[in-house]
Amino acid sequence: MTPLDSPDGGMRRIGALVRDARRHRGLTQQQLAGRLNTSQSAVARIEQGSQNLTLDFLGRLSAALDSELISLGPAGPAHLRVTGGRPLRGTVAVKSSKNAAVALLCAALLNRGRTTLRNVSRIVEVERILDVLRSIGVSATWDAEGHDLTLVVPDELDLDGIDADAARRTRSIIMFLGPLLHRSAGFRLPYAGGCDLGTRTVQPHMIALRPFGLQIEAHAGEYQATVDGPRAADRTIVLTERGDTVTENALLAAARAEGTTTIRNASSNYMVQDLCLYLQLLGVGVEGLGSTTLVVHGRPVLDADVDYTISEDPVEAMSLLTAGIVTGSELTVARAPVEFLEVELAVLAEMGLRYDLSPEYLADNGHTRLADITIHPSELKAPIDKVHPMPFPGLNIDNLPFFAVIAAQAHGSTLIHDWVYDNRAIHLSDLTRLGADVRLLDPHRVLVTGPTRWSSAEVVCPPALRPAVCILLAMLAAKGTSVLRNVDIIARGYEQLYERLVEMGADIEVFRD
């Protein structure tokens, strides 16, 4: 083993260890790159000792090579040291959707056959759901490259053995309700957790699932569910909010319910479309894909070996575009799902952003429209109207925080109205630590005035995923060295974000105290 804090030449020695371990395993550089979801050239740089390595990446190297390359000692919270003020360059490809992956993992509980999900994001949120699935008896196996995941659900689930700690650490666990109501007449599910974004009521889920016979009571940190069966052969559900997860829960319940379920005021967002496409592969009839009315023709037994490739993530695409915009970069974001970015791009065009779109092409799921977006350094001006989210096809709620960072680059004042979450706008006010003029008008609205002369600072990561990434992106624009502390929340929704930014020219170092 080689200690990480070895003297000069440590990176070269680690590179030699990586090379020797790779050869011992009979792997080419390209095959190791596949396991790490990186490029062959990056592996070559690692083996030459010329690539900066984060603790997280060294851990992944050890796992990919089945060899403990380093001794780390006690692991504490991860922090970032960011030296900003330099432009990014090159081309970066968008990875697959976190939210679609989570929905499809829950949907696999419906299938008696084998589900293979391809192009799955290796992020904390996915791993938490996998921990829960494995704890109740589901077999979940990654392929050799670590990109594709095969799930096999047993005839009987061990619901009493559920990993309560993992379940409580993800709000996505609520999407177990739809599939499980078909598996048991009664079960318990730990309360959901996740980002600190204020109270998000579960009442819309209760309303949506009641027509399938599900009743929920909350006791001692658990949802206690009882199921008395659907109350009608055909049912119409009007969702009280056009939410993504509530639409997915209704779809998951309807998939194995006999008869026809009509879901009105349904979300037609990207993760819902991925779920619909998967259900169609299982043999479920789903009409109205991409609209706000979904008609589901359920089948009591779903038994099919299916193979589905998850589409690209529009929120990650917006994150990467923002990184390029705030650093004044010429940058290409490839495989961007433009169908779910059209309003964002229209707002950016009104603000003066210059960009080019490649001809469109289809994602590997055969449905989602993709394009490569090349942005150019641009002088931005504040939009005349406020920037606010709406359900798809409006501006994505998860993309809204990035407009705070972009607006700070623009001439003039921009009103940003986050009407969905109780306190995410409060977290955006942390941008003031880096020199931005962000005035909090109330828990839902901020007024951002630019242009900003960014300055380096030390900031503790806010406890919400997108605002945390916004702070990181602002640090890329700030000259000097900034420190972002307690960044583990970013790993919930992004795979290899720091390494990919470094490959584009960013100077980011991961460290622990």
Task: Give the SSE layout.
Elements (H helix, E strand, L loop, with lengths): L1 E2 L6 H15 L4 H8 L3 H9 L6 H11 L4 E2 L6 E7 L6 E3 L4 H10 L6 E5 L5 H12 L3 E4 L6 E4 L11 H5 L8 H4 L5 E5 L12 H7 L4 E6 L2 E6 L7 E4 L5 H12 L4 E5 L5 H13 L2 E3 L5 E5 L8 E4 L4 H13 L4 E6 L5 H9 L3 E4 L3 E2 L6 E8 L23 H10 L2 E6 L6 H5 L8 E6 L2 E6 L7 E3 L4 H13 L2 E6 L11 H7 L3 E6 L1
Helix pairs in contact: 1-3, 2-3, 5-6, 5-11, 9-10, 10-11, 12-14, 12-16, 14-16
Task: Please provide a written account of the structure.
The structure is a single chain. The chain is of the alpha+beta class. The chain contains 17 helices and 25 strands. Helix 1 (10-24) crosses helix 3 and helix 5 runs parallel beside helix 11 (270-282). The protein starts with a strand and ends with a strand. Residues 1-8 and 193-200 have low confidence and may be disordered.
List the defining traits of the structure above.
alpha+beta; 513 residues; single chain; 25 strands; five-stranded mixed sheet
What is the C-alpha radius of gyration, as a whole number of Å?
A: 23 Å
Q: Proportion of β residues?
A: 15-25%
Q: What is the CA–CA distance across the termini?
A: 21 Å
Taken from the alpha-carbon principal axes, the silhouette is: globular
Helix percent reads 25-40%
Low-confidence stretches: 1-8, 193-200
> What is the number of helices?
17
Q: Mean pLDDT, as a whole number?
A: 88
Number of strands: 25
The main pleated sheet reads as:
5 strands, mixed
The chain-level structural class is alpha+beta
